[in-house]
UniProtKB/TrEMBL annotation:
Keywords: Coiled coil, Membrane, Transmembrane, Transmembrane helix. The lineage of its organism: Bacteria, Bacillati, Bacillota, Bacilli, Bacillales. Residues 181-236 form a coiled coil. This is Uncharacterized protein. It comes from Gracilibacillus halotolerans. The chain crosses the membrane at residues 46-64, 88-110.
Length: 242
């Protein structure tokens, strides 16, 4: 097969894939939304779980003590202190420990590298929460794989399985800027990086222009205030009569 034939085959495959670009974009958007929902639900469920197992017992103990609940109050705050040496120290450390664990869990459970996330019962809970989301994500990814494979482009990395990337890669090869998929992807990465840098620079320029406008407005306001003071001072000086 000649280089020309290889380019033509690649163009035909890309043209076929371009027709399904919108479907790939829709699936990718659904996958992204599912990941966000999965993360939010996981964090909220874990925080609620640790809220119940940490502050729950604390509020329960305070409620028993404040309301003088029959049977429980005499046992916990009457009998146990007489049976267990250092009961009140243990009780205080227990309550403080639960409160500290509560704050620690609220601040760290959002990170996957959190120590609490490595606990086996927490891992099982995470798997249970995320299983339904992961099933839907796998289905969408398999659908994307089928679309790409049907165009004989199974080697195309997932990162470029969206309409914009496919269209740009097609243009590079069609315009003879690239002879292979690998080279076209390299050109796409270069252009994409330059575009991101240009957007970042535009944002910085916008902030700088906004700062200059505020400085000019402040300077104009200061000059105007100074002029008013001069006018008021001149009016306050009595005129000499001749």
């Amino acid at each position: 097969m000649t280089m020309y034939q290889g380019r033509e085959d690649l163009l035909n495959n890309l043209a076929s894939l371009k027709k399904n670009g919108n479907l790939l974009d829709k699936n990718n958007k659904k996958i992204s939304n599912l990941h966000k929902k999965m993360l939010n639900k996981t964090n909220s469920r874990l925080r609620l779980f640790f809220l119940l197992i940490t502050l729950g017992p604390v509020f329960l103990l305070f409620f028993i003590e404040s309301q003088r609940i029959p049977i429980l109050d005499p046992i916990i705050f009457g009998l146990l202190p007489n049976l267990i040496p250092g009961f009140w120290l243990i009780y205080s450390l227990f309550v403080i420990g639960l409160i500290v664990l509560f704050f620690y869990s609220m601040f760290t459970l959002g990170r996957e590298d959190s120590y609490l996330r490595r606990l086996r019962f927490v891992e099982r809970k995470v798997v249970k929460i995320q299983s339904s989301f992961e099933h839907k994500i796998i289905e969408l990814e398999e659908q994307n794989n089928e679309i790409v494979n049907s165009s004989n482009l199974g080697i195309l990395p997932k990162k470029y399985r969206r309409s914009r990337a496919i269209n740009k890669i097609y243009e590079y090869i069609a315009n003879l800027h690239a002879d292979s998929l690998k080279e076209a992807i390299r050109l796409y990465e270069i252009e994409d990086t330059q575009m991101k840098q240009a957007r970042a620079q535009a944002v910085l320029d916008s902030f700088a222009a906004s700062d200059r406008r505020r400085a000019e407005q402040k300077q104009a306001q200061d000059i105007e205030a100074l002029n008013r003071k001069v006018d008021n001072l001149q009016r306050s000086i009595p005129r000499r009569r001749y």
